[in-house]
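Progress against Task 2.4 (sequence-to-structure conversion) is shown through the following example record, which the project officer requested during the mid-term review.
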Amino acid sequence: MITKSYNYLPQEASFLRESIFVKEQGFIDEFDDLDDISTHLVLFEGEAPIATCRYYFDREKSAYAMGRIAVDKAYRGKNIGAHILEEAEEQIRLAGGRKIYLSAQVRAAGFYEKQGYVTSGEPYYDEYCLHVLMYKQLEGGDE
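Structure tokens generated for the chain above:
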């Protein structure tokens, strides 16, 4: 497996996100203006894209924000989500990031907790389902 990093939304990431978030999960507005300011990671198995996520620096919060992770259905349950999340965290750490926050679907909060993320506040309804704000402190980055 190889992870590629892009400063734009590549077709591979767009395809995965649309097939999972729009077609599979029923989200209507998956693509937004955050794509233009995000770094997009795509994990490949050979030539096939199998997972993607995005992150960006949120100046207002002085922290990095992580987008949802999309893993091809055939690769779920194989620790692929954790792998691409670790890749994103390492890139953020190397860029000097100390804190990452994300808005997780409540049903995915357990996954992020296993990866060291902590829940902040109460669940809230957003984008057609319940979400919870989560964050993680990184070691070795600048404040």
